[in-house]
Amino acid sequence: MITLKGEHIYLRALEPEDLEFIYEIENNEDIWEISNTQTPYSKYLIKQYLENAHKDIFEVKQLRLVISSYTNEALGMIDLFDFDFKNSRAGIGVLVKDSINRKKGFGKEALQLLINYSFKHLNLHQLYCNISEDNQASIKLFTSQGFNEIGLKKDWIFTNGNFKNEYLFQLIKK
Predict the structure, then answer these.
(1) What is the CATH number of the domain that holds 155?
(2) CA spacing 20 to 30 A to 115: which of 5, 99, 148, 174?
(3) For the segment 127-140, what is each residue's pLDDT rounded down to a tens digit?
(4) Name one Pfam family in it (predicted).
């Protein structure tokens, strides 16, 4: 049995009821830099996205899951993106939506669950992530799970009138 259940949270597929939750995340300008978003999303577009969320990772090259508490509160999202079957790799990103739920280990537990799933069930060889140089919380999170900094992309992100560097981190299956 595939388990995406941890001690404090579990990962679940997207549901139509997640429309408002995803709408709030996708339209929060404070996180657009992280998600590489430049324009707002309509509820109509998100509804269409949810209608297709059942499609297989091999078809759409992405897997987006909700980080949920055992009281069924949606806490955040965790994604595999740029899924590359031939080269056995994918990008990974995690977001805990509300600051009140951050620094409680939910993101760490979600990341551990998805790393295990990626290596054991998708048989990936490696995962990678891109983190802005000033996002110390994410750098700490990913390095705590064995990701290594392998490169620096200079002036990679243009935000608030300035360019910022972005680190590339990688985790190779042992």
Answers:
(1) 3.40.630.30
(2) 99
(3) 999 999 999 999 99
(4) Acetyltransf_3
